[in-house]
Write the structure tokens for this entry.
Amino acid sequence: MSTATRNERKTQIGVVSSRSGDKSIKVTVAYKIPHPRYHKVINRKTVLHVHDEKNETAVGDKVEVMATRPISRLKRWRVLSIITKAVTVEGAAITEQDVAQAVPTKKTTQSAAPAPQA
């Protein structure tokens, strides 16, 4: 009996752009190609429908995905690993006083600086 080895499968690295449903995400893979005639570099992207078995990814995560058998009508990829997690900020309400303290205005700069002596 021979030992069967699995073929090397395609892998891509991209950014999670959408969480569409339970265990489903969209991953955008960006790449650049030169224009055939004008040779200017053009930004292109491919959107992959990916299966996320553990629901562990979030929008903005950089993930590695691998080609697999068809899982649904569109999903042909699955998440291998999360390379970097997206930076998330807890939602805290910002008040007008917070903005007024952070952004200097004419009133605050004039009152803070002493008037020139003539």
Remarks:
- The first helix runs from residue 96 to 102.
- The mean pLDDT is 86.
- The longest strand covers residues 11-21.
- The chain has one domain: 11-108.
